[in-house]
Amino acid sequence: MDCIFCKIVNKELPADIVYENENVLAFKDIHPKAAVHILVVPKIHIESINSENSENIVGDLILAAKNIIKRDNITGYKLLFNIGREGGQMVDHLHMHLLAGNPS
Ligand code: 5GP
Ligand code: ZN
Known about the structure:
Structural class: alpha+beta
Oligomer: single chain
Largest sheet: 5 strands, antiparallel
CATH architecture: 2-Layer Sandwich
Distance between the termini: 33 Å
Number of helices: 2
Mean pLDDT: 96
Strand content: 15-25%
Number of domains: 1
Bound molecules: guanosine-5'-monophosphate, zinc ion
CATH topology: HIT family, subunit A
Radius of gyration: 13 Å
Shape: globular
């Protein structure tokens, strides 16, 4: 499948990976919009929050984000989903943005 985030999950494309567990991979956004800008993605391909069963997967993404912020001593942060083209979603593999700190 021609999905860049699947390729990153499968280690076919390089990424700056900051966290991984059985269900989730997290890596630095290639165009960071904050000092910390991490993308947290499920290892399985699912298109967006609009997809069936996304609500069963989002908990894994949030748990991963909580592990990252605890590990990295991040005290305040934003979690963001862009959904659909008109919602600003450019990559059709469900992902949660973890943003913290000043724009860089
Ligand atoms: P969206 O707009 O779909 O919510 O966010 C997609 C994000 O993926 C953007 O912030 C963009 O900078 C990031 N991105 C796109 N392609 C790549 C890539 O190949 N590697 C990484 N690390 N980030 C990417
Ligand atoms: Zn994918």
